[in-house]
Specification:
It is a single chain. By secondary structure, the protein is of the alpha+beta class. The chain contains four helices and 16 strands. It has one domain: Sandwich (Jelly Rolls), CATH 2.60.120. Helix content is 16%, strand content 40%. It binds 2-oxoglutaric acid (AKG). The site of 2-oxoglutaric acid has 10 residues, from β9, β15 and β16.
Length: 229
């Protein structure tokens, strides 16, 4: 079943995900019957400054028709289960993944539209475009991602990582790497946009914690500049 092992990436690819996602999506009442569309970013993105030169923009419900888009992505994305070496063990990565580089065709035209809109708004602020698209599928509350900053690739002082959340809301947590203060908690799903900017990837960490609550699946779509991961 294990197809290949790339020692540099520390990741084992074992299979494509070709099962139905079993947890049903609980649709948003506001999204029923909506055609795909995007809100105006300049009017809807609300910026909050954080400590140490970081900031976040929030645009709740930025994507209309988000539940239909969720269903299409569950079906059409070639989801991969990965395994990762942790000390002496190889463990399952607790979510399914798929990554698109800047030249690769995206699995749905809606993602291209979202990327264009994000670029129009954020590229002038950071001097480069959000050209890569990463997708994660959290099947239920056992899927998660641990505390981290997206700073394992190209080293940048400041950058922007934009996350569109589809499907059932999960808590995206943010905490300072150094210094005190409570972690911040943002329930994101059903087309919400959360953008991390400034020094956020260096001076703060983010996570999607596991939850014992019964939650259905969520897809996170991340738009990043080239080499940022
Ligand atoms: O699920 C999310 O929105 C966060 C994803 C994330 O932090 C990552 O893939 O690096």
């Amino acid at each position: 079943m294990i197809a290949r092992f790339n020692p540099e990436s520390n990741i084992r690819l074992n299979s494509r995900y070709d099962e139905a996602v079993t947890g049903a999506i609980q649709g948003s009442l506001f999204d029923v019957g909506q055609e795909f569309g995007l809100g105006p970013l300049a009017a809807s993105a609300r910026r909050t400054s954080l400590a140490d030169g970081a900031w976040i923009d929030l645009a709740p419900g930025w994507v209309r028709g988000a539940d239909d888009l969720f269903e299409r992505l569950v079906r059409n994305v070639p989801w991969r289960a990965e395994r990762r070496r942790m000390y002496d063990n190889v463990v399952d990565v607790p979510r399914l993944l798929c990554q698109y580089g800047e030249e690769e065709p995206l699995p749905d035209p809606a993602l291209g539209e979202a990327r264009r809109a994000l670029d129009e708004y954020y590229a002038p602020q950071i001097g480069e475009s959000l050209c890569t698209v990463g997708l994660c599928l959290y099947r239920d509350g056992r899927d998660s991602v641990a505390w981290h900053g997206d700073n394992s690739g190209r080293q940048v002082r400041e950058t922007v990582v934009a996350i569109v959340s589809l499907g059932n809301p999960r808590h995206l947590m943010l905490r300072r790497k150094q210094g005190s203060g409570q972690a911040l908690r943002f329930p994101v799903g059903h087309g919400d946009l959360l953008v991390m900017g400034g020094t956020c990837q260096r001076t703060w960490e983010h996570a999607i914690p596991k939850t014992s609550r019964v939650v259905g699946p969520r897809i996170s779509v991340q738009f990043r500049p080239s080499g940022v991961r």
